Amino acid sequence: MLDSKYQKFFDEISLKISKDKIFTDKLHTLAYGTDASFYRLIPKIVIKTDNAKEVQDIIELSNSMNLSITFRAGGTSLSGQAISDSILVITSRNFSNFKIASDASFISLEPALTGAQVNGLLARYSKKIGPDPASINAAMIGGIAANNASGMCCGISQNSYKTLKSMKLIFADGTKLDTACEESKNEFRKTHADFLKDLKSFSDDTKSNEELRAKIEKKFKIKNTCGYSLNALIDFDDEFEILQHLIIGSEGTLAFIEEVTYYTVEDLKDKASALIYFKDMNEACHAVTKLKLARDSKQIIVDAVELMDRAALRSIEQDPAMPKFIKDFDDEVTALLIETRAISDEKLNIQIAQIEDLLKEFSVKREIYFTKDEQEYTLYWKIRKGLFPAVGAVRVTGTTVIIEDVAYPIEVLAQATLELQELFQKYGYSEALIFGHALEGNFHFVFTQDFSDAKEVKRYDDLMNEVVNSVAVKYQGSLKAEHGTGRNMAAFIEVEWGHDAYIMMKKIKSLFDPKGLLNPGVIINDDKEAHLKNLKTLPATNEIVDKCIECGFCEPTCPSNELTLTPRQRIVINREISRLESIGNHKEAKEYKKLYQYDGIETCATCSLCSTACPVKIDTGSLTKHLRAEQLTPGAKSIANFVANNFSGTLKGIRFGLHSANFMHKVLGTPSMETFTKTMRDLSRNSLPKWSITMPKGTNINLNFEQQVKDKKVVYFPSCISRTMGLNDVSKEEKELFDVTVELLQKANYQIIFPENLPNLCCGMPFSSKGFNEAAHTKSSELEEALLNASEFGEYPILCDTSPCTKKMMESFSHKLSIYEPIEFALTFLTKDLEFTPIDEPITIHTTCSSRKMGLEDKFKKLALLCSNNVIIPADVKCCGFAGDRGFNFPELNDSALRYLKKQTNGAKMAFSTSKTCEIGLSEKSGLDYNSIFYLINKVTKAKNL
User: How deeply is 360 buried, as exposed, middle or buried, from its count of CB atoms within 10 A (0-12, 13-18, 19+)?
Assistant: First the structure.
């Protein structure tokens, strides 16, 4: 129950914003209220906003009622700046319009685009945005700007502050300002004359205070996000430039960023990286100092230098992409990951030689080797970006991972870093590791912490107080280099900056937010123990997900991320249920379970794409399958086993149903059929499946066709889906997938072998996805035995025409068989056997979740380009959300997952994938006729003349 003032706010805001975007229940306020930091506040109200008008309405109402609000974008912030115990305003993924300048010199962005999406938009122009945080795939523009997030390459020269062109803002009183629009600025001058006068006086006072000015200049020569961007007061004379640059790094405490326009930077394609191993930290840090000084004096070109101490290397040494010899290093070895970029390969070679020459004097454990191989260096950087979350894989379950973020002047880097390591040993944090952007003197140190024990909290406090003194006082560094102040360092701003600077920051806060309603407690906080309060614990729930640190890297890949919950949020709720059960509060745990059923279980596609984005491969889809299995009754299991044991009869029933639906469609016509089936589905409370015009007709396959004995043999297993579901009523294709596949294989001169008892065979996926593990194992074992016999125990390759089924077979079979899905089979065999003549007609492709997890995304693009000179790949479509049969029963999941499909496939004439069920939803949402890629291959190939 909301108290009266929040209830009144809810009632009034509901008149302006749809109630389905406003949340007050315990499940959503907890799930949506959680970010990547180690702090927790639970909001009373959460509102997902799609546009600036909604945000303005919220701000005006909250201001009139004196209720505090906090803004949230991607929720990847690490310092506690994106949580609230009042009203949390989340920018939904629909808040994502953009505009690219005609020459791509700048780009205007709404707050919910991720950094990776933006760079994807700019890639065709060989441009990118400057900020490059490790979380760029998940972090959104609103947060990147509000935190002045930087990263591995941008340093202090290409961060948000330095590449900012203009902003659209909404202030604490609801006033809007566009700093690129003279009309908007003139109106602001009229309505906020005193504001601008005070802001100008702050600037003048700071410029005239020589000691403060000198301090600001010195502190911003290195990365610094501790406190407000006071450099704006001395860098600019124009009030609007001062204003918008103060917003950078203000963490939602001064205004809401409706839109930010960045100057873009060049994205050089010629790159090389080297992972260099030094004998110890001292040697590595001195190498960094030499690299930095040489770069600043323009003797060399080096774009990034990332340091990883031995503990950091140890946390990733098991990764298959890492060299095996790392495991043999002693405890002092420290690595530098160095990247240099050039305008040409010739220039790149020169730059590499210069760096190698510069480093000759240092003692290294392995010969220095720069790789230009994109796949190789991309793997290195991907591992480095996932280093913080990877620590979660080695922590003790129940403990929290702490990451701190400091920067030192480069001339004291070695001495300061060695002192930091000594502090870890002094306070017993032997597992602590150090990594970071060494070229900027910016290090992250990570350790595990138990916040459930008062003594452990005291140990943490003692360590942090010494760290603060060492970093900010002794070495005059930054307590927060790029992660933002948040709640984590708010208590220590005055220690770092001194009295005059801190007073100026408080004046800035009061000027922009006189009532103190915007993100209170962040940056400006008089509570000297704020960093020790509202600490978040990570209780054990299930070993499948216990290593999760709630970083949020998984969220962009999830098909339900805008509909219900994300993988991170599902884990948050499961942890809370387990916590409640552990303390005996079974009543509340049961309430959570009831609320979780639809959002957490029913609308999870179990696609497991979250595991591909997670640095430690946590698979929340597997958790959902586990929970579904726990809910199954003995009766349900018996029915599943009966279906598995009578599978051919089940498929006959499905064919009959599809034939019946097709007959009704012909009789009623499309409009009447849609109305009738929708009415019946509504009356059944959605227990009947959804019908659409792309629903396939029933089909049968005919194995009795003529073929000759050939030297080349292939075992063809048509999936139960392709044996049952045929073309839809609006398809222009004439042949079924089975017939096309047979025709293609015979064109390639193969003798086709079918496994025995084919009508009863199934890979088991329809059962395993629902938690029927026994039935799934039964079907999988039957199929494996049949394929073993058909392939002469692996002598012949096995082709399955459906990618998800192929992946299930690969995961389940105990024997090593050569199993291929369409993409891999075509590239491995058909490109040798057939002559491809690409068409000019534009096509689009959809890589299924299973294909992505098998590493076939780039291979599918390669195959498509063999078939067409114009291939369109929708950037923001990952999992289609159909999830086997879930698209029939929960079509809203398919709708949400494919919300960008039609727009991003505009211009395509034909569409292809490798899974029939995916193609049903893809066809409906795009208006295109999606079919197997084998249709296109068959169209553009002919047999080679041998």
Answer: exposed
Q: How far apart are CA 89 and CA 52, in angstroms?
A: 11
Q: What's the whole-number mean pLDDT along residues 350-365?
A: 95
Confidence of residue 638 (pLDDT cuts 50, 70, 90): very high
**Between the CA atoms of 296, 301, 306 and 308, what dihedral angle is there, to the nearest 10 degrees?**
-100
Q: In the structure encoding, which two tokens stand for residue 259, read together?
A: 């839109």
Residue 630 has pLDDT above 90, yes or no: yes
pLDDT in tens, 169-198: 999 999 999 999 999 999 999 999 999 999
Q: Is 895 exposed, middle or buried (0-12, 13-18, 19+ CB in 10 A)?
A: middle
The percent of the chain in helix, strand and coil, each rounded to the nearest 5, is 45, 15, 40
Q: How far, in Å, CA of 151 to CA of 405, rounded? A: 12
Answer for the pair 919, 807: CB distance below 8 angstroms, yes or no: no
Report CA-CA distances (Å) from 25 to 45, 46, 57, 465, 723: 8, 9, 22, 38, 45
Helix (H, G, I), strand (E, B) or coil at 124: helix
Name the maximum alpha-carbon separation found in the chain. 93
Would you state the torsion angle of the CA atoms of residues 29, 33, 38, 39, taken in this order, to the nearest 10 degrees?
-80
DSSP assignment string, 840-883:
SS-EEE---HHHHHTT-HHHHHHHHHHHBS-EE--TT----S-T
Tell me the C-alpha distance between 938 and 735, whole Å.
11
The CA distances from residue 876 to 94, 464, 557, 873, 901, in Å, are: 12, 41, 9, 9, 8
Q: What length does the chain have?
A: 946
Query: What is the SS3 assignment for 804?
Result: helix
- For CA atoms 805, 807, 810, 813, the dihedral sign is negative
Three-state SS at 52 = helix
Q: Can you give the pLDDT at residue 430?
A: 87
Beta carbons of 145 and 260 less than 8 angstroms apart: yes
Distance CA 941, CA 833 (A): 10
Query: For residue 568, which phi and psi values (nearest 5 degrees)?
Result: -55, -45
> What separation, in Å, do the N-terminal and C-terminal C-alpha atoms of the chain show?
78
Portion of the chain with pLDDT greater than 70, in percent: 99
Helix H or strand E segment including 408: none
Coil, helix or strand at residue 391: helix
CA distance 884 to 765: 9
Cβ within 8 Å of residue 57, ≥6 positions away: 13, 16, 17
pLDDT in tens, 714-738: 999 999 999 999 999 999 999 999 9
pTM of the model: 0.94
The pLDDT-based confidence of 485 (bands split at 50, 70, 90) is: very high
Residue 946, pLDDT above cutoff 80 = no
User: pLDDT at position 127, please?
Assistant: 97
Q: How many Cα atoms are found within 13 Å in the side-chain-facing hemisphere of 481?
A: 30
| Whether the predicted pLDDT of 25 surpasses 70 | yes
Q: Identify the pLDDT of residue 153.
A: 84
Model confidence pLDDT, tens digit, residues 191-223: 999 999 999 999 999 999 999 999 999 999 999
Short-list 613, 36, 121, 122, CA closest to 382? 613
What's the pLDDT at 387?
76
Contact status, residue 532 vs residue 51, Cβ threshold 8 Å? no
696 neighbors 728 (Cβ within 8 angstroms): yes
Distances (CA, A) of 426 to 462, 487, 864: 10, 25, 59
Alpha helices (H) along 259-340: 281-296, 310-316
551 CB contacts (<8 Å, ≥6 apart)? Answer: 36, 76, 135, 138, 388, 389, 392, 568
Residue 870: Cβ-neighbour burial (10 angstroms; 0-12, 13-18, 19+): middle
